Amino acid sequence: MIRKIAQLVVVSALLSAATTVYADMNLVVLDSVRAIMESDEAKVLIDAANTEMEVEQSELRKMAENMQSLNAKLQTDGEVMSASEKRKVTKEIEDIQIDLQFGSQKLQKEAQDKRQEILQVLAPKFDTVLKDIIQIDQIDLIFAPNALQYANPKHDITKKVTEKLNEQRE
Fold it and tell me: Residue 42 class from Cβ within 10 Å (0-12 exposed, 13-18 middle, 19+ buried)?
C-alpha cells in the first residue's frame, strides 16, 4: 500500500514537472507552403506562371465550347441525322473529350511543377526568415497545421513569416 502511494506521488510529481516544462516552451504553428505562396514575390511568380499557361487554357476552353456545340447539334438535329452522321459527330465528341482530359491533366501537371518551382526558388529566403523569427521569438517547437487536431490561431505564425518574406523583398 505504501509502495503504491509512493508511486502515485512520483507520477504526480513527474506530471506536474512535465506541465511546467511545457508551459515554459514557446510552441507555434506554421503552414510553410501557405507562408511562401502568399508572399508578394510568390504572387508575382504565380501571375507569371498563369500568363505562361494562358494559351493552353484558352485552347482547352475552345475545345470544351466545340464539344458543347457538337452535343447541342446532336441533341437538336439528332433525329434528322443519318446513322453515319450521328456516329461521326459522336466520335468527334469522344475524341474531343479524350483531348480535353489529356490537356487538363497536362495543364494540372504543369501548374503543379510551377508551384514546386516557386517553392524551391523562395525556400532559401523562407529558411532565413524562419531562422530569424525562431531566434527573435525564442521558439522551441513548430507544428505543421495538418498534423494537429486543433491549434489556437494565436499560435499561428504563418502570417508573420509571410510579412517578413515581403519585407526581405523590398
Answer: buried
* pLDDT above 70: percentage of residues in the chain: 85
Q: Which amino acid is at 21?
A: V
Q: pLDDT tens-digit profile of 88-109?
A: 999 999 999 999 999 999 999 9
Total domains, the chain: 1
Dist CA 153 CA 49 (whole Å): 31
C-alpha cell at 44: 508575382
Domain limits for position 105: 2-169
Beta strands in the chain (DSSP E): 27-29, 141-143
What CA–CA distance (Å, rounded) separates 137 from 140? 9
List Cα–Cα distances, 36 to 59, 110, 161, in angstroms: 30, 19, 8
Q: Which residue has the cell 512535465?
A: 18
